[in-house]
Amino acid sequence: MTTSGSVALRHVRQQVRPDVSLHAVIAGSGPAVFLLHGWPQTWQEWLPILEDLARHHTVVAVDLKGAGGSSKPLLGYDKVTMAEELDILREKLGFDTVQVVGHDIGGMLAYAWAATHRDTVTRLAVFDVPIPGASLWDGILTDPLAWHFAFHQCRDVPEFLIAGRERGYVEYFLRGRTANQDAFTDAAVDHYAHALAQPGAVRSTLEWYRAFAQDADDNRKLAREPLTVPVLALGGEHRWGPKMVDVLREFATDVRGGSIPDCGHWVVEERPDVVLAELEAFLQR
Fold first, then answer.
1. The domain at 7-280 falls in which architecture?
2. Cis-peptide into 132, omega within 30 deg
3. In terms of Cα–Cα distance, which of 156, 149, 154, 153 is closest to 173?
4. Three-state DSSP class for 285?
5. pLDDT (tens digit, 9 = 90+) per residue, 41-87?
6. Catalytic residue among 23, 103, 238, 265
7. Residue 104 is among the residues annotated as catalytic for this protein
8. 45, 142, 270, 281: which could join 37 in a potential S-S bond, CB 3.0 to 4.6 Å?
9. Mean pLDDT score of the chain, rounded to an integer?
10. Given a cut of 80, is residue 2 above it in pLDDT?
């Protein structure tokens, strides 16, 4: 048991498949809200809002498979497979239904979870990420800020180039996508670099990207039956914000949201006040 401010944090690790266990941090009480981070982060992405969110909700901040304290198996990084494992985690933790919030890769995973488990996911929030299979998806590789989509899908070369250089790569990646250069302390960069340097972490988290083709195919099929649960689609004004609502409306019928002013990709760290206010207004208590 650790603490974040005045809130107690309970660390759990649950076996969800013979070769997969997921680490999560639980805080607060009330309706369950699962928080899914992006690349190259861990559950700690959510620390700027976790304590306040836990006042009215049971917050479950998960290390995605491949990252942080979760398992790093060789296979199974398509988002439908990862969503099934998250739903097993939900059941093992004793929640009948959940509200799901995801940023970056976590947003892709959050959609897959909601679309494949419509009886257990009651609300969905997706932050600053396009969904594989959306109409704009095929043109994303021409976006200069999305150069890493292609690079991370290469086999073996990224692992070779990043090994031993995790600190520099993570710092460049974080600071190059933020409108607020004070959003990340050196300690936060150190944490994410250390997590990425753990055995198997680079390869495993890059597999999230290498599954994109499968994800796009799966999502196009899932979109034939649009989500009817409420969806909050938010992004930074200087990144995906202007497109978020339109993207999610290709997959769901009840979508609200838009752009967060003076914000880049890292919405939780850059504008925690806005993100918290939007979530507290959106989530059921």
1. 3-Layer(aba) Sandwich (3.40)
2. no
3. 149
4. coil
5. 999 999 999 999 999 999 999 999 999 999 999 999 999 999 999 99
6. 265
7. yes
8. 45
9. 96
10. no
